[in-house]
Specification:
This protein has 131 residues and is α+β, with helices and mostly antiparallel strands. The protein is built from three helices and eight strands. A six-stranded antiparallel beta sheet has the order 6-7-4-1-5-8. A two-stranded antiparallel ribbon has the order 2-3. A hairpin with a 2-residue loop joins strand 2 and strand 3. It is globular.
Length: 131
């Protein structure tokens, strides 16, 4: 049975939650390598986030294979658009699923964007908070 959700416009002031594995952190700092477009199929690769309307930082963390090894950060949608990233609500089996992509090239091939993302995020759940 396939679940279908409507694609919605995300208000610019809304948060998008992003999970960061401890291997992408150093001394509590998120490394630029944490930001990349992932996926099995080229056309659907993205930096996968959860929209705050349908998720919480806790819910996103619990979706990880090992939640205790993950932190959750957030971005404001408008801030991502302002640095020329594309944000698109793309519900799959999760209504909150939202893609973030580079416009001219994938995020992982743009070191400048990755560094900017390190400055743009806000902490939601740090790994230390989970101990």
């Amino acid at each position: 049975m396939s679940v279908k959700f409507d694609i919605e416009d995300i208000p610019n002031e809304h948060k998008l939650y992003y999970r960061v594995h401890k291997n992408h952190m150093d001394n509590g700092e998120v490394l630029p390598v944490a930001f990349e477009e992932r996926g099995r199929i080229e056309e659907t690769k993205s930096m996968s986030t959860d929209w705050e309307k349908y998720s919480t930082p806790e819910r996103l963390k619990e979706k990880a294979r090992k939640p205790e090894l993950n932190a959750v950060i957030s971005f404001i949608k408008q801030n991502l658009i302002d640095i020329n990233l594309r944000v698109k609500h793309r519900p799959t089996i999760y209504q909150a699923h939202t893609d973030v992509n580079g416009i001219s090239k994938p995020i992982q091939r743009d070191p400048k964007i990755r560094l900017i993302l390190c400055d743009l995020f806000n902490w939601e759940i740090n790994i230390e908070d989970s101990k």
